[in-house]
Amino acid sequence: MDREKQFEHIVSLKKELEDATIEYWRQFSDYSTWQFWVILAMLIIPLIVLFLFIDRKKIFLLGFFGFSIHVLAAYLDALGVRKSWWDYPYIAIPQLPSSISIDASFIPVYFIFLYQWCLNKDKNYWLYGTLSAIAFTFIFKPLLMGLHLFELYTNWFVLLGAYLFVVYAAKLITNLFIKLSERA
């Protein structure tokens, strides 16, 4: 099979997958299920809390840090789903990644508040970020598994590595940009 035919085949498989995902959502994950509402709440409620309680004096720093967390978490989550390391059986919006509520709201907001707390209380982000990654891996994800909102198909330490990478890389990126802005 030549390149064009192979690529057309991949595109048709993606269309089939999209159709199957939407049909799955209609049958098992639409607005008539409690799972839909839990996932939607995990998307909306953290953003409301963030709006109400973010330190407005540090909003750009915290926003940049949170955006870094979001991007890194979303890419790693997409990789994990694509590699079948884990997946999310219920979807809030079938056209978006299945983990949108966790990667775009729940995790970034949590880590924004953690970073804000560490800055305001002069606490060690690296320590508390590490402890948080461990808690997300061994407490939060098993809770989601118990609710059948998350399925893990690999070793728990792969998931922990993903969380640690996000926690550390977001802080390093933020520190880099802080240093660059100080030199300007």
Verbal overview:
By secondary structure, this protein is mainly α. It folds into two domains: 1-30; 31-183, no CATH class. It has six helices and two strands; from the N terminus they run αααβααβα. Strands 1-2 form a two-stranded antiparallel sheet. Helix 3 (59-82) runs antiparallel to helix 4 (100-121). The N and C termini lie far apart (54 Å).
Brief descriptors of the model:
184 residues, two-stranded antiparallel ribbon, 2 strands
Helices, strands, pairings?
Blueprint: H1 3-28, H2 34-53, H3 59-82, E1 86-87, H4 100-121, H5 125-146, E2 151-152, H6 156-183
Antiparallel strand pairs: 1-2
Summarize the structure.
The protein is mainly alpha-helical. It folds into two domains: 1-30; 31-183, no CATH class.
> What is Rg?
18 Å
> What gap, in angstroms, lies between the N and C termini?
54 Å
| Global shape | globular
Number of helices: 6
Please tally the β strands and state the result: 2
- As residue ranges, the low-confidence spans are none
As a percent range, the share of helical residues equals over 70%
Order of helices and strands: HHHEHHEH
What can be said about the biggest beta sheet? 2 strands, antiparallel
